[in-house]
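My main concern about presentation is that the manuscript never shows what a single data entry looks like. An entry of this sort, consisting of the sequence and the corresponding backbone structure tokens, reads as follows:
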Amino acid sequence: MFKTINAVLIHVSLDEIQPKIWRRLVLPSGWTLEQLHLAIQAAFNWWNYHLHEFNIGGLRYGDVELLTEDAAEDDPRVFDCQEVRLRDFGRGALFKYIYDFGDNWSHTVAIEELVALDVAPKHGTCIDGARARPPEDVGGIPGYERFLEIMSDKTDPEHADTKRWCGGYFDRDWFDLAVVDKDVRNALRPNVRRRLHQPKPKRSGPTTA
């Protein structure tokens, strides 16, 4: 019996960083690009206070008013991201999501599957992923590379200040599926609070013989 497509399996990865930082999401097929933006923000724990846009087939999609506020007459037109839904894409579609035009975090979004679930999803979920995204406002790829150098060298004169700035701890390999999935499930809730810093590992208590 034919089942209606009601979900989309999406892979999102940060560009230009190795090893790859990525998330795999299952989202309702009726969600718009704006809702996808919120899901990506939640999946990577970006703080969502910088501008963003999607680049699809050379066309720009986003908040038209914000992205054209200071635009010149010959700048490319911006299309409303709320007029495009995930079900409008075909399997295998690839496009870009750019967050923070200063740091310029470019993500590759891949539509892996169009899915007919027995129960239509009401929220997004994260089902897999790897590694922590760079700290917000670290300065793009060059800034992140310098950040990792400083954090790995306790003799660097900037080490103490940088460590405090990032919350006292940073593990580039950190990924907790339960934590990320909870964030994605709450992606559309208003006034969602983001973690300011990466969770620190829990210390194991003393063992007894």
Summary: The CA atoms of residues 147 and 207 lie 36 Å apart. The beta strands are 7-14, 22-28, 52-56, 59-62, 78-80, 94-99, 105-115, 125-130.
